[in-house]
Each structure stands twice: as structure tokens, then as C-alpha cells.
What does this fold into?
Amino acid sequence: MLVAVTTGLCLLFWWLGTWQWHRHESRSALNEAVHAAQNEPVEPLTGVVPDPTELPPGTDSRRVSVAGHYLATEQSLQRNPSGRAGYAVITPLDLDSGGTLLVNRGFVPPSMTDPTAPAADVAPPSGPVQLTVRLRAPQESGDRTAPDGQIYDIDPATYPQQLPSPVYDAYGDLVEQSPAPAEELELPAPPDLGMGPHLFYAFQWWSFIPIAIVGLLLLLRRESRALDETEGGDTPPVTQAHQTDPTLPRG
It folds into this structure.
């Protein structure tokens, strides 16, 4: 029974370690792709994404240039982006080349007097602007319903405002803007290229395999010793009376 249980645990530990190893490899490949995209030269949006409904492979985090004017009345606030208390300011950009691109213009903390409102004026400039943005794939939309004028996820397909077509399926994290923005917004951070704990977890799960085997051997050895002691105790000892009784025949 102990051998069967230990074998099952070892197989489980091997599978869990392999799963974490594959996650490590996937994260490494993703980071390499993002790093390569970030090092590409800045090009016009239409040259990188010719089809607004599809973000080509290898273009997530790619920097592109766009021009147009912000649609201030269609602006939304993303609640608590990445778990931070505050808002990301999402403003549609009516592109000179045609269509609309959602732009994450930056983060603003909540007001000290009204937590449901941003702490600064987040109105976009009214005139034409030229931007460099970092393309990002849409965030997965959840089932949560945000208050009017606010969203939880940046997903052009579920954006609550009516926008001029075509609407790009990707959105852009603002990198640079000309003229420079007057509002005090914290620009979106580049993607995290950390490797995470997956490699550590993989070796941790695999290290449990020899521990389980050593534990099994120790248990089997202890049971073997206990059995030997029990079998040795079944033989009755030679008594002193038996040794000195004169009526017993002597060899």
C-alpha cells in the first residue's frame, strides 16, 4: 500500500513540476516576443495593423504613431486598473487615417473628497494631436457592470460608447503626445517582463520526489525491524529450571 501511494505521489509531483516548467517556458517565449516588439522602430499604425479587426502576431507592445483628435464626450474611466485604487483614462482617438483607436492616456488616483471621481481634471486636449502608443491586445471582458462613464476592462468590442467605424480591435497605451498633455496623468507602464515563480515551483515539486522515496524507504526499514523483533520474541526462552532439573536426561 505504501509503495502504491508513494508511486502515485511521485507521479503527481512530476506532473505538477512539468506543468510549472511549461508555464515558465511560455512566459519566457512571451517575454522574448514583447522585448522584440518593443525594440522595433516606430511606424504608422496602418502599416503595422492593416486590418483594424485583427492584431497581427508579434505586434502586441509594438510602438506605432497615430494622429487625430480625441473624442472627449466618448471618454471612459477604467476602475482600479491592475488592482490599483484609481482610474485609467480611456479616450477614443478619431484617426486622421480613418477609424477609431482607444487610447489609455494614463492613471489618476481617486479624489480625496469623492472616491467615485478622479483627483484631477482628465479632459483631453481639444485640438489635433500626434501620439506614439504601445499597441495592446484587448483585455478579457468580465460580467461586471460599471457605473455610467466607467468600465472595468479595456475591450473595444464591448466599449459602451458609440464610436466612428472602423474601431481597432487593439488599444494603445500612450507613450508620447504632441502637444504635451497638460493634465497630470501617470503614463501606462510597459508590460512586466518578469519571469515569475514558475521555475522555482517546478524544481520545488520535483524535489518532493526523492523526499517521498526516502520517506518510503525509511518506513519500510522501520517496519522490517519491527517485524524482526516480533518474530524473535515468539521463541520461548530457556528457563533456569529446565537447565538444572536432575530428572531430565543429559546428553
Observations:
- The two ends are 50 Å apart (CA to CA).
- DSSP finds four helices and eight strands in the chain.
- Residues 239 and 245 are 10 Å apart (CA to CA).
